[in-house]
Design a protein that fits this description.
Layout: H1 4-8, E1 23-32, H2 42-50, E2 54-57, E3 78-86, H3 92-101, H4 108-119, E4 129-130, E5 140-141, E6 144-151, E7 158-164, E8 174-180
Parallel strand pairs: 2-7, 4-8
Antiparallel strand pairs: 1-3, 3-8, 4-6, 5-6, 6-7
């Protein structure tokens, strides 16, 4: 039985909080940080391996720009990732507050690539899947604080891009809420 069917996405969420009408649960991904994972080089390695799968891969997504991670990931860390689709427009600060209320671990771009590699088929097509880090850990690029996202398409030509923190999140965007399993 899937975790969704078991009630993780029900009225009383499996993460100790009540449902929030602003967000619709649309999927769950289980992630294990692989053996040999190196947090300090994973983004550049991901680019080398997966670049051809993306029509747009923002040139500023690199280990150098995302080197202030709040959480360093190590081999064998385990996560359940809730995919929560926005039903209303909210600010990025509201998104961070929501993730905090769910006790989500903020893993940023490094967690996002693991969600892509291990749960691509769960990511909603044509929707931005955003993975936050603490606001101060998000890089400032072209004078804007940036949030990494992946937007998969059924025809290929996916996007790995950076949203502007100050622009907020729009209806249809999906927050990826990472929950540590140890």
């Amino acid at each position: 039985m899937s975790m969704v069917a078991n009630g993780l996405c029900g009225q009383k969420q499996g993460f100790g909080v009540k449902a929030d009408a602003r967000f619709k649960p649309v999927g769950i991904i289980e992630i294990v940080v692989p053996e040999g994972y190196d947090h300090t080089t994973c983004l550049n390695s991901f680019r080398r391996v997966h670049r051809e799968e993306f029509e747009h891969f923002h040139h500023e997504i690199s280990d150098q720009n995302f080197n202030r991670s709040t959480i360093m990931l190590f081999s064998d860390f385990r996560f359940v990732v809730e995919i929560l689709q926005l039903q209303v427009k909210i600010s990025s600060d509201e998104g961070l507050d929501f993730l905090s209320s769910r006790r989500a671990v903020l893993v940023g771009a490094q967690g996002l690539i693991l969600a892509y590699e291990q749960g691509y088929d769960q990511l909603p097509l044509g929707r931005r899947g955003l993975a936050f880090d603490e606001k101060e850990a998000l890089p400032i690029i072209d004078s804007y604080r940036r949030i990494p996202f992946i937007c998969p398409y059924s025809t290929g030509g996916h996007e790995f891009d950076l949203a502007h923190f100050d622009n907020g999140l729009v209806v249809g965007d999906c927050l990826l809420a990472f929950h540590s399993l140890g």
